[in-house]
Amino acid sequence: MKISIVTATFNSSATLRDTIKSVLGQTYRDFEHLIIDGGSKDDTLDIVREYEPQYGGRLRWISERDRGIYDAMNKGIAMATGDVVGILNSDDFYTSDTVLQAVADAMREQSVDAVYGDIHYVNEHDLSHCTRYYSSAGFRRWKMRLGWMPAHPSFYCRKKIYERYGTFDISFKIGADFENLLRLIYVNRINTRYLPVDFVTMRSGGASTSGLKSHRQILSDHLRAYRKNGIRSNVLLESLRYAAKVGEIATFRTKSALGL
């Protein structure tokens, strides 16, 4: 079973080495890595070329102007030749060398359309220090009406599902990943499975993880995603997610302080 890993890049030279090394270090070897570059002006492509020989033909890449990260992801999914597709952002990296093996083991069951797991965040200046752990264990389909979704960087889906139900709507500024999962999981009720695996280490500070402005945009995108898919929800229901998130962060910090 081939797994296609899509990485969108744009001026990613500061972090891309970590991403690439974590892919090359996977114990599961039936994969391809698709790097979709938006026309970087820094050393991003030099790094891609440097590591290309180590892939043994399992790396494909393009560099051209695009209409943003979701457009790049769509290009990668369209190029993918694997049975299963996952997204690995260019400032993130796999937490362990057995992530793809866990995905492959779960996806061998033909009734499973997609899997997801956990991720954790780190400070960009100290990659060994976890600042927040995001577990998808408590996710349920009905919670999407409250704005919840499984951690998207841990989402691995059969390509035929994307072909059947569509990829990312690039008209969304930040929330195209939520709208896509809403369409796949809530509307079309694909069969998903949670894996108790820490998939990805993410540097804090991405477009969807920081700032009041970004959270306002997320709320706007979520409400629009509901309307697009004919789902009833509102600001009040969405606010419950933020209350739960505060509790999650408080619990994590308490455990960290106690060394648990």
Can you walk through the features of this model?
The protein is an alpha/beta fold and 260 residues long. It has one domain (3-258): Spore Coat Polysaccharide Biosynthesis Protein SpsA, Chain A, CATH 3.90.550. The protein contains 8 helices and 9 strands. Strands 1, 2, 3, 4, 5, 6, 7, 8 and 9 form a 9-stranded mixed β-sheet that branches. α6 packs parallel to α7 (212-228).
Provide a compact summary of the structure.
This protein is of the alpha/beta class and 260 residues long. The chain contains eight helices and nine strands. Strands 1, 2, 3, 4, 5, 6, 7, 8 and 9 form a nine-stranded mixed sheet that branches.
Structural class: alpha/beta
Question: Strand count, sense and closure of the main sheet?
Answer: 9 strands, mixed
Report the CATH architecture. Alpha-Beta Complex
For CATH, the homologous superfamily is named as Spore Coat Polysaccharide Biosynthesis Protein SpsA, Chain A
Q: List unreliable stretches of 5+ residues.
A: none
Average pLDDT over all residues:
90
What is the number of helical segments per DSSP (H or I, 4+ residues)?
A: 8
Number of strands: 9
Assembly category: single chain
Give the N-to-C terminal Cα separation: 38 Å
Number of domains: 1
Shape: globular
- The name CATH uses for the topology is Spore Coat Polysaccharide Biosynthesis Protein SpsA, Chain A
Radius of gyration: 18 Å
* Strand and helix order: EHEHEHEEHEEEHHEHH
Helix fraction by DSSP (H/I, runs of at least 4): 25-40%
Strand content: 15-25%
| CATH C-level label | Alpha Beta
